[in-house]
Amino acid sequence: MDNKAEIDSSRLPRHVAIIMDGNGRWARRRGLPRLMGHRSGVKAVRRVIEEARQMGIAFLTLYAFSTENWNRPREEVEGLMELLYEYLEREFDNLKRQEIRLLVIGEIERMPAGLQERLHRVMEETASFEAMTLNLALSYGGRAELARACRKICDAVAQGRLKCSEITPEIISSNLYTAGQPDPDLVIRTSGEMRLSNFLLFQSAYSEIYVTETLWPDFTPEEFRLAIRDYQRRERRFGKV
User: Fold this and answer.
1) Alpha-carbon span 124 to 134, nearest angstrom
2) Quick one: what percent of the chain has pLDDT higher than 70?
3) What is the 8-class DSSP label of residue 234?
4) CA pair distance 221, 44, nearest whole angstrom
5) Which residues contact 214 (CB under 8 A, 6 or more apart)?
6) What share of the chain is helix, strand, coil (3-state, %, to 5)?
7) What is the pLDDT of residues 175-192, one digit of tens each?
8) Concatenated DSSP letters for 137-205?
9) What is 13-141+184-232's CATH superfamily?
């Protein structure tokens, strides 16, 4: 049976977010350096982006590097930064060909200068594309994002542009990195861990969660389709009966 045919294209999640976990364990099980796991994980990123684009997913968010990841050994962090730069160099033409808009959510100012420059260039040159939006969560943390939103709201109140009584969930949402985007309908986590790990804490309030034991480098388009099919079997009530 054609697995793609089993997916109801009229009931696709608009926004899928993925916690890409398991690169280190994948490498360790093979007696390889952790960076080799991250390098293999980049191949999975390419596969999933292409599958989501072909399927018709409007927004895809990938948790690539958290605020906590800065605490990893310097050699690993530097290697990850190099991998990110290589990815942008190699995949830029593919993003343009598929008309995918790239956005970075997170503290981009903490990235190395050369990587920042490259990220801004790719974002600028893909800004008009509408086939799919790819959010790369880099130096991202959900709590830090909420603190940042609070500071922006406080500034608006101090400047008289907003009253405290006017602060609503919608106001908070409009001050997040994902402002203007739908909240994720589906959050996928690889490697079997049962936690959000500080990822899209506000936005994921009513997200469906799919956890697979598969380590990220082994995550295939078929596994992605399994997650979508599982999502389509669920009934989303949003607190209603």
Assistant:
1) 13
2) 97
3) S
4) 9
5) 22, 190, 191, 223
6) 50, 15, 35
7) 999 999 999 999 999 999
8) EEEE-HHHHHHHHHHHHHHHHHTTSS-GGG--HHHHHHTSTTTTSPPPSEEEE-TT--S--SSSTTTTT
9) Decaprenyl diphosphate synthase-like (3.40.1180.10)
**Residue 201 CB neighbour total at 10 angstroms:** 14
Q: How far apart are CA 223 and CA 214, in angstroms?
A: 9
Among 14, 161, 135, 127, smallest CA distance to 64 is for 135
Please name every residue paired with 135 in a beta bridge, in sequence order, or none if there are none: 61, 103
Domain residues of the chain, as ranges?
Answer: 13-141+184-232
Per-residue model confidence as pLDDT tens digits over 43-72: 999 999 999 999 999 999 999 999 999 999
Q: What are phi and psi for residue 49, nearest 5 degrees?
A: -60, -45
Distance CA 3, CA 6 (A): 5
Q: Is 183 a catalytic residue?
A: no
Separation CA 100–CA 24 (nearest Å): 29
69 is catalytic: yes
Of the candidates 2, 8, 21, 218, the residue annotated as catalytic is 21
Which of these is catalytic: 8, 69, 71, 230? Answer: 69
Contact 146, 122 (CB under 8 A): no
Four-residue CA torsion sign, 171, 176, 178, 184? negative
